[in-house]
Specification:
By secondary structure, the chain is α/β, with parallel strands linked by helices. The protein is built from ten helices and eight strands. The strands form two sheets. It has a six-stranded parallel sheet with strand order 7-6-2-5-3-8, sandwiched between helices. It has a two-stranded parallel sheet with strand order 1-4.
Length: 281
């Protein structure tokens, strides 16, 4: 595959950065940790949980790893010990060594207990994800795209063996089901309750705008607006279809590397975890 993942001469510093820059309290809160390939809906889920009142940390580990790689200042992640539950999200990819890692392993490395983590692994139909990658980055590295899918499946399997609670989630769940129903099932699984019976988690017409000072979101870098504009400007949590027109070579790569199969397995596990049916094309 052309455009391999870019390596760095700072691998050891990247691997150690969490030991110096994540501040874990003695009795840390429960953590809902969302992890998935870039452009699989992690930011939108972050907004869901932030609107429900959870402090939502946006890519703290990835941001510090990239900072080391780029020689930039590293922002500490101090986990709020006053909270009962917090939310954090990380993404996998797209291009460099620092962007491919296992967030669960990084948290365990700094002393977070496996029993206090609920991992939500996200996935999305591969043509849709690829279309979004091309939209964001243009000529994307296929090696990184494949690695991000292979890695999320490995992360989920490893977490389960370690006793971490897990939930599989695919973006298409809200394309073939009522988004409020899907979120109701997801929130029930991670034991987060809605503020009132009249609250609709998929309704974003009122309340703080994602990323603004009172929005409960905490950033560790400054994301380009094109990465967050869709969530900031949206008035609801909804499904958006975006399919890339694959070349024969791209289709061959995704098929031979098992990307299509990984997504299909995620769909089945999401159906089982949330008790819903998802229609695949």
């Amino acid at each position: 595959m052309k455009k391999p993942i870019l390596k760095t001469n700072k691998s050891s510093e990247i691997d150690r950065v969490v030991l110096e820059h994540i501040k874990v309290p003695q009795n840390p809160p429960e953590m809902i940790l969302v992890v998935g390939p870039c452009r699989t809906g992690t930011t939108a889920l972050g907004n869901v949980f932030a609107r429900l009142g959870l402090i939502s940390y946006m890519q703290p580990i990835k941001s510090m790893r990239r900072a080391v790689e780029e020689g930039a200042p590293v922002i500490d992640w101090t986990i709020d010990q006053q909270q009962r539950v917090v939310f954090s999200k990380e993404t996998l990819g797209a291009k460099t060594e620092s962007e491919f890692f296992d967030p669960v392993q990084e948290l365990l490395k700094v002393g977070y207990q496996a029993r206090k983590i609920h991992l939500i692994g996200t996935c999305r139909e591969s043509r849709a994800t690829l279309g979004s990658w091309v939209q964001m980055w243009g000529n994307i590295p296929m090696s990184g795209f494949v690695e991000s899918y292979q890695l999320i499946e490995k992360i989920m399997k490893r977490a389960q063996k370690l006793g971490v609670r897990t939930t599989h989630y695919v973006q298409e769940a809200i394309g073939t089901n009522n988004p409020d129903l899907v979120l109701e099932r997801l929130l029930d699984r991670v034991k987060v309750t809605l503020p009132s019976q009249n609250t609709r988690a998929a309704d974003w017409k009122t309340g703080a705008i994602f990323g603004e000072e009172n929005s409960k979101t905490v950033f560790f870098d400054v994301p380009p607006n094109r990465f967050v504009a869709g969530v900031k400007e949206s008035q609801s949590y909804h499904f958006k279809l975006l399919l890339a027109q694959l070349t024969a070579k791209q289709d061959e790569v995704l098929r031979n590397k098992g990307v299509y199969q990984i997504y299909s397995r995620f769909v089945k596990k999401c159906e089982n975890d949330l008790g819903i049916t998802i229609l695949e094309d």
